[in-house]
């Protein structure tokens, strides 16, 4: 029986992944490693900026030469002030979970500041209260299970009793490693990619999630 639902933020709660990956690809290209939007999605989506930067610098064989995480956060927040919206159907899903008294939380690779901004900007913060957890709170980010284990511990629910909604293969792998049931939201990452990462269910819209949770 499902006792809690854990949500990734970017691409699951807020429609930000195309913005984020477009900007990240531009910055990595500026650093000297030509990168397309599609390559950014495949290599970095779902991971923390710091861990992604480490991969970039390993491939370059040198530091990027500028504060890429700070520049990324500045540019992303500027774009999101103008363009950010909640993912279609997620507000209704959160309302159903609230009505059913099912605990929810956020487990995201974003910084605490980035997550708070995105939830506030889209009016979703009130659904989660203090239960917002960042990869910057644990030693290892996605695809390791640390963030999801922290989230389950903080909301007081065993990981096996949690459903995770994720849109990246890194997040899916982390959720499965933590012992959670994972719903893969195939938006930018393909259904096949999420299924190969271990997703138990695949959806292409949030309206498909309630029946999987026994709601609506």
Automatic annotation (TrEMBL):
Gene3D superfamilies the record matches: HAD superfamily/HAD-like, Putative phosphatase, domain 2
* A GO term, aspect molecular function: sugar-phosphatase activity
Pfam families associated with the record: Hydrolase
Which SUPFAM superfamilies does the entry link to? HAD-like
Q: What PANTHER family does the database record attribute to this sequence? A: FRUCTOSE-1-PHOSPHATE PHOSPHATASE (PTHR43481), GLYCEROL-1-PHOSPHATE PHOSPHOHYDROLASE 1-RELATED (PTHR43481:SF4)
Q: What is this protein called?
A: Haloacid dehalogenase
Give the species this sequence originates from.
Answer: Catellatospora bangladeshensis
